[in-house]
Amino acid sequence: MGLAVGLSVLSGCVRQRVPPEELVVLIESPPRNIDPRYTTTSIDYKLTYLSFARLIDVDTQSLEPRFDLAESVTPLPPGPGAPLRYEVTLRPAKFSDGSDVTAVDVLYTIEHYLDEKHGSAGLRRRFSESGLIQPIEIAGPRTLRLSYSHSYSSIITDLDFSIVKHGSFEKPSEVGLPIGAGPFVPVSEAGEVTRFVRNEHYYGGRPPMERLTVRVVRDANSRLLSLVGGSADLTQNTVSPLLFEAVKKWQDRLKLQTAPSALLFYMGMNNEDERLRDPRVRRALALGIDRERIMRTKLHGAARLATSLLAPFHWAYSPPGPELALNLAYDPARAKKLLDEAGYPDPDGDGPKRRFTLLYKTSTDALPVAIARVIAAQLGEIGVGVELRPLEFNIFLSDVKKGNYQLYTLQSAEIAEPNMFRNFFHSAYAPTSKNLDAGLNRMRYRNSELDALLDAGQSEPERAKRKVIYEKVQAILTRDLPMLPMWHPDNVVVMRRGIEGYQLWPSAQLSGLSKVSKVATASSE
Question: Is 0.85 topped by the overall pTM?
Fold first, then answer.
């Protein structure tokens, strides 16, 4: 059903309204698991964090860590074999069953995450890299001390993990999940429809909504129809800018809000390719793409121009200097000159022949394809041909990991910790034939100078010194352009009128649902 036809039919239908005490949130793909040991996808984490409070989170406008279950994290003097030590004090808080959150619960949680048979592979790797020393010392009912074998930069943000009640992995709730201390309590298994009730004991205050239902609706038009019809209340980052005009037509029922995000839409370039290994060619491609025009025409302005992996509001962001900024400016004349210098002259001036042709892969979703077509046309204006190949997402991602591409565009998850530069650009994190999941350096970029800086950034705990290191990192990347940072797409929420109190965070987490309430409006009658 097309959107226009659907809306016409809808206007004459009897609609099933969401009850006032329930909030229905729409997502585009189902979670796999919201047991914190087994979360893997972005939506897994978002729903898990609704039920399981963390020691630390980064749901702040600057992405700086803030305390969740932790009341304080205090550095301690070094000990034997432990150059870094911290004392973590918990705030007074209760689990959803009314029992107190204690240091014993935190110790139990960490030990089970480290269990090779039943724990979390991601957290095992995180704790291993940080050098967490066991056993962990319990210093009081709400106090524990963490010791580390070496200096490590992201220890504080690495405390961003879910805490469960002691014993509840062995004796889970009726739906097979441990007991948490988040704002909502799961009362069904994760799936096409995942149901929660509010946690009456939540330390942050009892959520206004009694029930929360998260429902999967895969089709974008159908999600919008559900909101217009009143069978759903809210959706975040699932309504394409291609549908913004449709949202405006129903402004008596819907409202659209945007806010800056820590997401990144970028163009990856295969640095092992015979042409793209030349930084002059990569810079020429960047100069040939009018990113601001694409943002204006395809994204309706709901994005911020990117110059780095990090968003401009991030504490470690460093803008490029005037000379380096020229590498990111739209300048087709300079792009042509660079291609000439690199040995790829235009064979017929402004004629139809191309300097060379690049294979550009993207997903089959409508917006990425529309963006890719504009990019292909713009590159054609500097004499570079593009063979555009949209692929089903899993096939597309597999090809990217294998290096079976020359160009690709993709959107990252939120980037809050600057140590992510290491995952994207360190030589050790380039996929290989033996390990396609070695890291996110799918551009296969290798630079020993940058590797040394990224190693230093990972081991430096002082923020001021880290900022200096990452300023140098960002300068090198703007010079070499192993990837082109395109823009930071805004977080976009579409909700029914009468939904109040929702907070959009740059991290794109759903923690703002804990403050949402419903107010009766004329359009909801």
Answer: yes
